[in-house]
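Fold this complex.
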Amino acid sequence: MIDTIELNDQIKRTNAYACLECGKCTSVCPVSRYGRDYSPRMLLNRTIRKDFDAIFQDYDLWSCLTCKKCDDVCLAGIQYIELTQLLRSKALEEGFKGKCSHAGALQSLSRIMTSEYLHQNRLDWVTDDLGIATEGEILYFVGCAPYFDVFFSDLEVTTLEAAQSSIRILNRLGIEPVLLADERCCGHDLLWNGDAENFTRLGKHNLEEISKTGAKTILFSCAECLSTFKSLYPQWGLTVKPELKHMSQFLAEKVATGELELQSSDTSITYQDPCRLGRHLGIYDEPRQVLATGSPRDNGAPLREMQQAGKRSLCCGVSAWMNCDRTSKAIQTERLRQAKSTGADVLAVACPKCQIHLTCTMKDQLLKDKYGLTIRDISALTLERMQ
Amino acid sequence: MDSEGHIADLLVQSKATISFESAGTPQAKPIAVVEPSPCTRACPAGVNVKAYVSLIAAGRFQEALEVVRQRNPLPGICGRVCTHPCEVACNLGDIDSPVAICWLKRFVADYELTHPQAKPEPISQTRKEKVAVIGSGPAGLTAANDLVRLGFGVTVFEALSTPGGMLVAGIPAYRLPRNIVAAEIDAIRHLGVEIQTDSPISGDKAIDRLFEEGYRAVFLAIGAHKGRKLGVPGEEDYRGIIDCITFLNEANLGKAKKPGNKVIVIGGGSSAVDSARTALRLGSEAVHIVYRRSRKEMPAHEAEIVEAEREGVQLHYLAAPVRVLGKADRVTAMECQKMKLGKPDESGRRRPVPIEGSEFEVEADTIITAISQGPDLSFLTDDQGVELTRWQTFAADEGTMATSRPGVFAGGDAVTGPSTVIDAIAAGHVAARSIVRFLDGEALVQAEVSGGLVESEIEVDRKERKPAPRATMPMLEVADRISTFEEVDLGFEAAQAVAEAQRCQRCGPCSECYVCVPECDKITTILSTPQGDGEAILRLPGNFELPDQAGASVVVKSGRRKGVNLAVFPVIPQVKEELCRSCGDCVAACEYEAVSLIPKNGDVSVARVDPDICRGCGTCVAVCSTGAMLPGYYTGDWLTQRLASLDLEKRNIVVFACHWNGSHLDDKTLQDMHGKDIHLEIIHTMCSGRINPGFVFEALESGAEGVLITGCSSHDCHYDFGAKRAQQMFQNLERLVHMVGFKPGCVCYKQIPAADSARFMAAVDSFVEGLGKTKPNQRAAELEAVS
Ligand SMILES: Cc1cc2nc3c(=O)[nH]c(=O)nc-3n(C[C@H](O)[C@H](O)[C@H](O)COP(=O)(O)OP(=O)(O)OC[C@H]3O[C@@H](n4cnc5c(N)ncnc54)[C@H](O)[C@@H]3O)c2cc1C
Ligand code: SF4
Ligand code: SF4
Ligand code: SF4
Ligand code: SF4
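Structure:
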């Protein structure tokens, strides 16, 4: 049985009981907007009524993209996505789960990575021309890109390009970043699947490994990994000591100090704010600075912003490899439409998930090349413009 | 005894393992066949040999018989007297000895006699045209049978008082009991063929009159009943010289008395050997066969010659008659001359040449001539417009059976001269097809040449083959047979038939038995445990009301498994519309084009599976990333449940086996074969194309030390593309497994031939052995530590 007293306390912390029923959340929610009858307000309402059976049995408990749009507009300061996380963990305990895409293979991989006895071969992609270290002050956290590129080879996505480019840039700046041979999945997706136990195991392992390297700064190309380290680990009692930066932040700093000089380019670019980077961590400007520096803006052509950008930016449509469905596609199609209508040639991304999800829809058999765009990571685009 | 109980008994007796649950036991590829097996290609009538042999091997006797009947309306007859070119073609002939195909056919035909089936409904005439068939031998019967099935009215005119042609007039009852012939002809009659006996076609304008009577086409299948003369001095001068057909016909009708004490039969074909054996049975003391070439060239079947010898017939090879000697009006002896073999003639056999001065005499009071026969053309006048060859047979186009007169067709012995039952059947099929086209006003088309020995690309793997002796035919003792016309060959027991059929290597891809097809409309049990209640994958029609969840229990209402409790897993996937992204991956995956995207309102489309086209391989399920394509079987939960049975005390091996090539041994037997420290979890899927990385990871996560995937090769794949998909999937899987650090070789994909239990077992064995050589499974150790 659900311990409602305990649950109640936890719910209180999300401020859910303060709900005004204004419906602002539902009005901004992309799942409600582009999809079915999903409504954050309704879930709040059910929570207040303690109708947990209905909540747990609802497919839509797992539909929230945790894009945080609702939280940003809520007048009562409700932390809706916290509530979602809480309810999902409870639901999982009760034996309910989300609809895992790809037959759960990606969740399986993450869970397999909790093993103490793991001997990954995850650095096979590091070629001799990439300078990396096992100890040092700067650590580059690769994330699951090596797995993604194999798993999604049908889509021909190259999320590893972000890592390769980042390392090259760092090398040019005289930095040989530390790469962990036994890096594990950060656990982000498992946590949003409701699996806090395996999430914590992964977190602990990563932090232990990192502590052995002497790293003072950790760089990330993946917005999800960054937000996991920054927000989720501490939230779950895991202390992260090094400074944490997204590659775009790091690049922006270097551009500002003049250490990094970028050539101008004619490519017109639009930018997809990852929810984790933007609304979760408030990082909106740095990626734009990097993308605009030295080019298009300097040539008089600013970064071509999409209809919904920055705080209003639209999610890439799927979260935590769960509940990918018709609504996801509708969101992605809309996002690609917005990107295409900026007239830009390149859609810059700052998260491998955005890259995968948007590529998937772009290559959709029905849409054909309707939204044909080049989707590339910020680091990769930056490397190309280095002197 | 119903067939199922029967097989269960067999299982105990013979230790043979039989899968009678797979709907398509005889493997692969009903859609596009690469090359049929050599046996099938060798059959002149186009009987699907591999299919029925495979079905017999699976204990599905009645279905096997139906397969034979698709192309041969006389299975019991052919099962006894056919010259079985299929066995000559059988690949096993090069290795030990061919599968006893002919006797297997006899077995299923006899099986039906002891396990009678409901008679099929007579076929109502849907076409107004009527066809006259002259002669009720195998050629005429086959054509009549084909035409009646197509809805035409058919009348067969037969000169003799019993229908069957040489089957009753020529072939003796000790080889072909008359009740067998009668039953098979009755079945043809029952369908709607009218046979008028004692009705020779004769007199002026015989063919014109048929057309005048309203027949729109005529098939001349009058056989070759007129004996040719020896053409030696004395032939016309004495009593005691008789033509074999006349002799046999009388004997067969029970009218013949002992022909004499000392009998010489001239000739080397079936008719000669049968005449000799018949004479013995009628009481003749000494019976000789005189044949002008060597034994090797004798057209009679070797087995018949051997039996004749055992019964006491004396054979003289390389000898030819030169003169008939006699006293008063009665034959006393035959003067013969020795021959030697010269250059091959047009038939390819070496021509006998007389040796000067080698004459010798054989004493005889009776001479039976069996040198060759031609059709009795006495009814045919020149004005009928039917041309003849120089051998006085009908001139008919080999590929269409058309004669020079439109609407008149001819086939069988009447065209070829004395030949075989199966050739006559083949001719009957060709003629029937031409007649239909003629009546439809279409141009005739040449039949594809079937039969004969064709160079086959399919090879039997000699190393893999365990030698198994060919079954021998139980026979009456010589002493018990020479005074009667009792059937000599006694036929197989069921166990013997199954064992013999299991020798078949099932060369090549799917046998196209199509037993799966009619069942698709009903409930087809595809996978199940052999003993009654169990688990089954069912192929259900689209409008079938599905039980709520996969694995729901149903009781089978009809058919072989009536009354049995089964857990139901429908194979045709259903689309959960809310989940479908209309990405079209499934559309691209299904090469049957069973999946299409149906526009919903606005831009939205959803995938839809056409249940009539879908074959249930599950490939689309494997490619669907969202899980919208819902399998009726092996859902995620079900898999989790199966994997929960892994035993962490043991080494766990999970095998995902395509059920077309997975072992037909039951799980327990398999388990026992691998000793106590191994837990083998065999999970059958419809096709290896159904497996996706998620399955494999889940198995590894659940504590499997190794995961083996078995499937057929692309060439063999029952679903054409499933194997291809599995191959692609595995390429990625292997890289991921390596990356995440499982020990090398712990995930393996093997392609093995369909329905080959031995190879399946070997694959499992070598996989397990290979695993044993590396360090123990870490994940399992860890799981143990945690629990
Ligand atoms: C003794 C003997 C043994 C044989 N053994 C074998 C064997 O073991 N295996 C094998 O494969 N083959 C065997 N054969 C050959 C085989 O029987 C024939 O090749 C086959 O029966 C030919 O079939 P058919 O339909 O062309 O003619 P048939 O079977 O000869 O039938 C022709 C029918 O037409 C009828 N008919 C003829 N003229 C007229 C007319 N004017 N009007 C109406 N009806 C007419 C005849 O009475 C006869 O019933 C044997 C033949 C003989 C004689
Ligand atoms: S987090 Fe985003 S997807 Fe989830 S309810 Fe809020 S707005 Fe909707
Ligand atoms: S693969 Fe799945 S999501 Fe894609 S169209 Fe087919 S059913 Fe829909
Ligand atoms: S891929 Fe297989 S299961 Fe899917 S629709 Fe086609 S035949 Fe049916
Ligand atoms: S390959 Fe397939 S389809 Fe094929 S029969 Fe076998 S595994 Fe199945």
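The longest strand of chain A covers residues 138-141.
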